[in-house]
Design brief:
Helices cover about 60% and strands about 0% of the residues. α7 runs parallel beside α9, α10 (about 185-195) packs parallel to α13 (about 240-245) and α16 (about 280-290) packs across α19 (about 325-335). The chain is mainly α and about 400 residues long. The chain has a 3-stranded antiparallel sheet. The protein has helices spanning about 10-15, 45-55, 75-85, 105-115, 120-130, 130-140, 140-150, 160-175, 175-185, 185-195, 205-220, 225-235, 240-245, 250-265, 270-280, 280-290, 295-305, 310-320, 325-335, 340-350, 355-360, 365-375, 380-390, 405-410; strands at about 35, 40-45, 70-75. It contains 24 helices and 3 strands.
Length: about 400
């Protein structure tokens, strides 16, 4: 509402005192979703979740160990806070909304205990779609392990529809290290992922099923070591299917999943030549050049790695529309969060080619690199930028866009 006052300590400065028992002991702000921990103390949910997420195992107020990390909604206190907000509406205070509570862990366990069945899986999928909090509640080994069994047809009552539904839930909930090992460690399960992922281009597998399989492949690769990633990347259909997702024209989720999975798989050196052969370098470079990567940091990190694989540099240049276009796209990318990876890819693209070095300078690489170095970047990013600055130094006199001044030359 116009003229409303933020629900925080700003209320005090507006001449309205917030009762101390309405404040979170951690943030000292008005609680929006009060929850009680095992010691009996009440905190705002966001504050205590952040406290626990950073590794703390004690109650912030009492310093007593938390017997468990269950957060019980304090409905009575929340209603009192809402009534207080309504009572002070004339002073510009907005009523806090009633928070949507996370899924009940007992409900999740009950649905999992029902065994593989479409009604239970559909209910689990609906809960997972609802919120991050629900997905966190569902991210237990028991739930994930049961979903893996259902998604890969281990049960007697398995069917294609049931497997697809379980895979969809698994794509939302993700995999831990143990569940990833259960997927990658079984040859038939890796083959199943490859079959679904490679089922595009007229093979009859719906796009949604391929996207879900891609998300499970990404989760498995992210939670595994290099050896397991190499096994997954070598499976027939996996690389080709992920490249098809990246090249989807009208499905942003497919593109994001494809990029994330290719990035995770390309952490293993053995997978990089496979990815290049499948067209990943060209597809990722096109997405970067078009500005529609969706996951720019991971896309450029993958491009940087693939540039160093045999044939990768040429594939990146061709995919971006030629040398000048590729250089311009990478220079533009140095203004965003993925600047370090853009700089690394640019080193691989322009190295040994004086004409492309001149193109990089003309595209504004020098100013972007100096901004990167002076902007408090990481040491690794700084080393890449400094290397590229030295590499491009010989190209400065061949361009009109940067003055060959003593001050500039003395920088690097």
């Amino acid at each position: 509402m116009p003229g409303s006052v933020p629900l925080a300590l700003g209320l005090d400065t507006a001449g309205l005192q917030v009762p101390w028992y309405f404040r979170c002991p951690i943030s000292l702000e008005l609680m929006r979703d009060p929850v009680t921990v095992s010691t009996g103390q009440t905190y705002d949910r966001a504050s205590i979740e952040s406290w626990v997420a950073t590794g703390n195992t004690t109650c912030p107020v009492t310093r007593a160990p938390l017997a468990d990390f269950t957060l019980i909604p304090n409905h009575t206190l929340r209603r009192l806070i809402q009534e207080w907000c309504v009572a002070h509406r004339s002073m510009g205070v907005e009523r806090i909304p009633t928070p949507k509570q996370p899924a009940d862990p007992d409900l999740v366990r009950s649905l999992v205990a029902q065994g593989p069945g479409l009604p239970a899986l559909r209910r689990l999928r609906a809960l997972a779609r609802e919120s991050d909090k629900n997905r966190l509640v569902m991210a237990t080994h028991e739930t994930r392990a049961a979903l893996v069994e259902s998604a890969f047809g281990s049960g007697a009552a398995s069917s294609e529809e049931l497997e697809a539904e379980a895979m969809a839930v698994l794509a939302l909930v993700g995999l831990g290290e143990a569940e990833a090992a259960e997927v990658v460690g079984r040859e038939e399960r890796v083959a199943r992922l490859g079959k679904v992922l490679g089922g595009g281009a007229g093979a009859g597998v719906p796009l949604e099923a391929r996207v879900n399989a891609g998300a499970v492949a990404e989760a498995a690769a992210s939670a595994s070591g290099a050896e397991a990633r190499a096994v997954l990347g070598a499976a027939e259909g996996v690389m080709d299917g992920l490249v098809e997702l990246v090249e989807e024209k009208a499905n942003a989720r497919a593109v994001r999943v494809g990029i994330r999975a290719l990035f995770a798989l390309c952490l293993a050196k053995e997978n990089r030549p496979r990815a290049v052969a499948a067209g990943a370098a060209s597809a990722l470079a096109r997405r970067v050049a078009e500005g529609g990567a969706g996951e720019p940091e991971r896309a450029l990190a993958a491009v940087e790695r693939l540039c160093r694989a045999e044939g990768g540099r040429d594939a990146v240049v061709a995919g971006a529309g030629g040398g000048a276009a590729a250089v311009a796209a990478l220079v533009r990318a140095m203004s965003g969060r993925a600047a370090e990876h853009a700089a690394g890819a640019l080193v691989a693209v322009v190295g040994g080619c004086e004409a492309l070095q001149v193109e990089a300078v003309r595209a504004g690489a020098m100013s972007q690199l100096l901004m990167l170095v002076q902007g408090g970047c990481s040491e690794r990013a700084k080393r890449k930028a400094q290397h590229l600055l030295k590499l491009l130094r010989s190209a400065w006199p061949n361009t009109d866009c940067i003055a060959n001044s003593d001050d500039f030359l003395q920088h690097y």
